[in-house]
Design a protein that fits this description.
312 residues; 10-stranded mixed sheet; 22% strand
Length: 312
């Protein structure tokens, strides 16, 4: 691993620990570097020196995992190919937020969220449309009156009030000066990720027949995530390593991250294995034989089996 990136990861790791987060191990070969939880906030972190170097395929994996666990994916870095990341500015790469290390520290330590969003067109802010209209009415200003003072069109003010467009920083500052109040929204970088479409699931799978949505993963310390299709169920998603004819030594090594990530995500994990020679657990991780999986009556029966073996 690049020494600068390694140093940056360690800095983020220590910061999270000091600020009361429960942190996972660092996963150098994974699409994400670490998971961290504090109360209901679950962060899925990728740390880079140059945020433009992030692999789009890895980001898609991060999105899938974040959606399943209701986690907040965040990229933290120092620069892009062209410039240093600015403080209190949110960038975006392949649909997830990216911030500088100073911005990240400010959010974690002080709870201060940035307001400015950077994209190819410049720097923008989100206007609180209801507040803008409220103060415009209070000052007895028409849309055109305020538009003329702010040097924008009537349509632009209308769009601000109805949340249809973002404002550039200069216009927002003019409006705040005119109305003598803050009218911009903070950006919730830690909002849990929700996929705009349905995440592809493996339907040709015994777990799927039991009522699980099975999300296969790549470049992760596990093979798949299994989430109950019943959205009202209180059960957390399951972390799975599926049968791939791995030897005992490999499986024992794989049990380490399963334990680690299960702890952070409050999820159960398990192995699906064909070989009858394996016991019911591998270093504390339940082992389900492939024929047992086929014989399970339903998801409740399967989850009960996992919990019983976990407790032995």
């Amino acid at each position: 691993m690049d020494m600068n990136r390694n140093k940056l990861i360690q800095e983020i790791y220590q910061l999270l620990r000091v600020e009361g987060f429960q942190t996972s191990n660092i996963y150098e070969q994974s699409c994400f570097d670490m998971l961290a939880r504090r109360k209901l906030l679950l962060l899925l972190m990728k740390v880079l020196v140059n945020i433009d170097s992030v692999n789009e395929t890895h980001v898609e994996e991060i999105k899938k995992i974040s959606d399943v666990f209701l986690a907040s994916p965040v990229l933290v870095g120092l620069k892009t190919r062209s410039y240093t990341l600015e403080e209190d500015v949110v960038y975006e790469r392949h649909g997830i937020p990216a911030v500088s290390i100073e911005t990240f520290k400010n959010m974690i330590i002080n709870g201060v969220c940035p307001e400015v969003l950077a994209n190819r067109g410049g720097y923008f802010v989100n206007i609180n449309g209801n507040l803008l209209k409220e103060f415009r009415d209070e000052y007895s200003l028409s849309l055109k009156d305020l538009a003329d003072i702010a040097h924008v069109s009537r349509e632009t003010i209308y769009n601000y009030e109805n949340g249809k467009v973002k404002a550039n920083i200069e216009t927002a500052m003019i409006l705040e000066e005119i109305l003598n109040t803050k009218i911009t929204f903070d950006i919730d970088v830690f909002e849990p990720y929700k996929s705009p479409g349905e995440i592809p699931t493996n339907k040709n799978n015994e777990l799927a027949k039991l009522g699980f949505g099975v999300v296969s993963t790549n470049k992760t310390p596990f093979d798949a995530l299994a989430k109950l299709n019943d959205t009202k169920s209180p059960e957390s998603p399951l972390i799975a390593n599926m049968e791939k004819n791995r030897n005992s030594k490999t499986l024992k090594k794989m049990a380490i991250p399963l334990k680690d990530l299960s702890l952070i995500t409050s999820s159960d994990s398990f192995f699906v294995i064909n070989n009858e020679k394996f016991k019911e657990t591998i270093d504390g991780i339940p082992v389900i034989k492939s024929w047992e999986l086929k014989e399970a009556d339903d998801s409740t029966d399967f989850i009960k089996m996992i919990k019983e073996r976990k407790d032995t």
